[in-house]
Amino acid sequence: MKRLAEINVLKIVPGRGTFVNADPDILVDRDSLNITLGREMIEGVYEIRSILDTGIAKYAAMKTTAQDIEAIEKALDKMKRSVQSTAIDPNLSIEGDEEFHLAVCEAAHNKVLQKIAWPIINDSMLRVRKYVSTSFEVINDAIEGHEKIAEAIKRKDPIGAVVEMERHLKMVFEKIYKLPERTTDLESSEGAAKK
């Protein structure tokens, strides 16, 4: 029961009971993602996240509102507070990270994109939380990446938001999953454009 609740098939409400999740799509989404992240899957998940998250960042920068910016900054503040003492507050770090990516997704103002992308993004985030939430280095690097993404979105710079989101994802996957370091096509294009 606990495992089914963790993957959102069941919802446990203290004092009321256990209920099957009312969203039928959640079963499809979870089944399609229910693959153990072995070495052969890591790069594929990274590429999927790169496609989805950078697209979301692009549209968030184009469509963001003052309310969206407030939600993004609130989530970022949670992550910052999680590392302000000598001991990491893992719950605050996890909440802030999830709320940041959800706020960026909502700032894109595309319900279809949200419906397709968020279950995939959230699933891969669930898998890395145990590593991310206990590492000062990774949380601080994530905060720095989130700040740069937020700045690009605030200045309504879709290209900057895409570049910063790609950098952030690359850092997370290299540190957590030990994705082989490589130059992405985006960075190669960006370097060529500067020359």
Detail the topology: elements first, then pairings.
Blueprint: H1 2-6, E1 10-13, E2 17-20, H2 25-33, H3 39-63, H4 66-82, H5 90-107, H6 111-132, H7 136-154, H8 158-176, H9 185-194
Antiparallel strand pairs: 1-2
Q: Roughly how much helix do the residues carry, as a percent range?
A: over 70%
| The CATH homology group name | GntR ligand-binding domain-like
Q: CATH architecture, please?
A: Up-down Bundle
H/E series: HEEHHHHHHHH
Q: Could you state the oligomeric state of the chains shown?
A: single chain
In the sheet with the most strands, the strands line up as 1-2
Biggest beta sheet attributes:
2 strands, antiparallel
Q: What is the number of E strands?
A: 2
Overall tally of domains: 1
Would you give the CATH topology?
Four Helix Bundle (Hemerythrin (Met), subunit A)
Shape: globular
Unreliable residue stretches: 24-37
Question: Could you explain how this protein is built, in words?
Answer:
- The chain is mainly alpha-helical and 195 residues long.
- It has one domain (25-179): GntR ligand-binding domain-like (Four Helix Bundle (Hemerythrin (Met), subunit A)), CATH 1.20.120.530.
- The chain contains nine helices and two strands.
- The longest helix has 25 residues, at 39-63.
- Mean pLDDT is 79; it is low at 24-37.
- It starts with a helix and ends with a helix.
- Strand 1 (10-13) and strand 2 (17-20) form a beta hairpin.
- Strands 1-2 form a two-stranded antiparallel sheet.
- It is globular, with a radius of gyration of 17 Å.
